[in-house]
Input
Amino acid sequence: MDRNRRPGSPVNVEMLREIMQLNFAMIETVLFLNTHPTCRPVLDLHNEFASRFNKLVERYQERYGPIYASYENAEYPWMWIEEPWPWEIKY
Amino acid sequence: MWEYKKILEYPANVRRQDPDYASLVVTQFGGPDGELAASLRYISQMYTMPIPEGKATLNNIGTEELAHFEIIGTLVYKLVEGIPADVLKNTRFAPHYAQHGRANYPADAFGNAWTASYIQSHEDPVASIQEDLAAEQKARATYEYLIDMSDDPAIIDTLSFLREREVVHFQRFGEVLDLLYDYMDDYEEWG
Amino acid sequence: MEEEKQYVSGFEMDRVRLAHAYIPYQQYTDHYTPARALKQGTLYPELYMPYQPGPRGYY
Output
């Protein structure tokens, strides 16, 4: 087993920030829709944010490694363990 | 079940390290009105909530609170990371260092360990939701005290975000309370 | 100062009962951009109530 640790994977803080923005916008649409399930404008908004979030996360994972452990294009070797973790990044 | 996203909900920074402040802000990690208590309160209550809007609200807010637990953990971690023991021993963080080193531990600003006694979970949904409304207000007030005691703009920025989330969560629980009144009126009429 | 408070129109006073707590239901009007929403802690302008240090009782 190769125990030589690879250097930490690169992060793109600007892209991460954009992911965090869309992630948060979705947190807000989800909470609103839970108590307003028939509000069409916010449902449309949610779908728009979700679509942008998913595309951006896909692009990020291709370039910088997984945001979800379930990411299916995982390269060899296993990238999930690569640092930095979210609490180790200076934003 | 839960799946981790390898991102923070909010990009939490500190401008400079401050072990004294770490020992205060830790109350939102493991104190009576902290994020761990909030998360476990809501995801304990959700099972018997009688209306679908209530189940979803408790599930999603309980999930978000766990992300807040991670944000506060990040602040404490960054505030003390790598500071040598001979510096820490002269700060308010010294008792924490004696018991945990620089590892995060869910305790309050006095050092009391987290306890489930901080939270309540009732089958009576109105009793539970009123507890949740109170919890959001107590957390909001705590964030204000913590903001009052900080002069680090990066910390104030993150705590202001978390404080505003308490306002939004209060609104959502208020809406669930309203729906519960409707639900119980229907129940009384049609039983 | 008063205009800054978020008053809600259409609160149904005739359905309120004694010994019950009520929070007015939010009605969707507008939203911030995701960037601004994250910065301010909410997507909804009518829920943005930032802390103003000073005498307590209003936020």
